[in-house]
Amino acid sequence: MIIDRKFFMALAIAAWVLCPQILLAQRDSIRLEPVVIKGFVPEKFMSGLKIQKLDSTSLNLFRFQNISDLLSLYTPIAFKNYGPGQLNTASFRGTSANHTAVLWNGLNINSPILGQTDFSTIPVAGFDQLAVQYGSAASIVGSDAVGGSILLGSTPSKQPLQVSIGRQQESFNNHQTQVTARYTAVINDRWTFSGKTNVYDGRMNNDFPYSERNQYTVLPSTSFQRGLVQDLFFNSKNDHQISAHVWLTRNRLTLTPEDKAGRELTLTEAYRTMLRYNYKEITFRASWVRDIIDYAKGDYSQLDHAVTDKFSNRIERDFQFNAFQIKAGGELAHYRAQVAGYDKELVTENRGDLFLLTRWQPTNRIIVSANLRQAFVTKFDPPFTPSLGAEYVLAQKETYNLKFKGSIGRSYRVPTLNERFWKEMGNPEIRPETGWNKEVGLEQNFTSPLNHTFSASITAYHNRIKDWTYWNPGKSYRVENLQQVLARGIEVLAGWRFDVSNWKSGANIGYTLNKSAQEKAYDAYSSDIIGKQLVFVPVHSGNLNAFVQYKNTRITAQAQAVSKRFSTFDNSQILDGYTLTNLLAEHTFVWDKIKMRLQGQINNVANTFYLNVRNNAMPGRSFALSLILMYDPPKNR
Fold it and tell me: Taking the model in full, what pTM does it have?
């Protein structure tokens, strides 16, 4: 469906309703209460869905690594890793790399041409908050949120000035460097200002002392990554809030760099910018994102060049009616793509969304969320996507609570630009993928009189996706809607924490059973793989994290176990399962306003042999040593 005058009329009406509130802003009296920067907080309207938030301690442990290293050890997300510093994509609850939405401050940053994110290019240093939302959330997030969503956020600083510089030196001549500054200031009696500036540089030379492991090739590669993160927050005492966000990245990957005829170069750049304004219940956001991909093989004199621009605007308003909370709004985006592999020199597209998010909490025991979204895409007709979720506290005592959660929601995925416009293999008539996700779960928390805290959860899910796109080898790899996939499984999480005096300790364990298989086929070629597990999706996976800390010294042990995976659609070829273990030890030295954190790390302690999705061997045991110097004066009282 082409975005027509009805959509623009809807936005115009919304703007007309909201404008009077903005125009009256100057009449409000100045209030001196402290205010908090407001942003898009989708978790509020995700009742019934499983959400996992990772704390700052976990983020600090992985400060010099990318997000996939962190998530693979704390969540059941399976990552398809092509090698150190190489392409790394997610398989969330048995879905494909195109079924995970990645939101940065509420903005989907998946590549419009690929429909996915390379997690090797997302360092943990690029954000302040990380939450993982499981299952479909299309009614809240929009396209791509079929298997789940990864939510990255920026937060204002609370320190007048905090500066840190860090360096990590790893095995194989790999190293990372970061410089971060956080700051706040009072501009005048009405406005305050805070910000963060982060610069990072990583080099993976991968100078392995071996070219094979167990007679499998260790693919030579080099990569480097640079980036700048800039967050600025302006806060007034009469509820005017402005924030500006910039995230610039540049990544260069070279495969087999010594082979001048067979080497491959992939150069990716991302320019992510956002400006957000909030006044009381109204929020407006404008953003521009540019993604650049250059690729060459052998001779680098001629690069396959692809550049896409996304311009988007979003407006939303919050309402409060006693136990009801409502967020209503719309978003309009314009895409421009120039890709060497397309028939057209320039491809443009408009997309829009109208959404209504609701939360009802009549008592302390019950929360219900009902959400509605309608998307509009040039020459497409995305489905109407409702969802309903609920939480009910079965038992609530001072030291114990037990909660039941359940949800059902429709999902959709807009086909990528590559799927529609690639020469010969693209299909302009491809249909959006649609599905229904259902899940139920229990969560409990218990605190003992002896300073022990226990938590546990179990979730069962059932996610059926129709019109799954498939690059059909039976038709020269032309993309078609050929599959119906059913992903179902059980996730179990448990945690323990014990704090007493100068001692702290804790452990978290997770296990996932996932069956994800093609349920129906719409083509004779794919009929023989019905009921077979999808490629590179493990049936069983688990992880364990445990630590003990005395004062400023901490020791952490991590383990990740993955069952066998299939590397072919008919399940005839298998990648064996494996277990990886890591050990970390760190100590923080404190001298008044100066802190120094020294950390040592052993990765793959047992020197385990395992293969990546290319059937190449992954490197064995490695070591890393990091040092962070920080100027960190005490917080103002």
Answer: 0.90
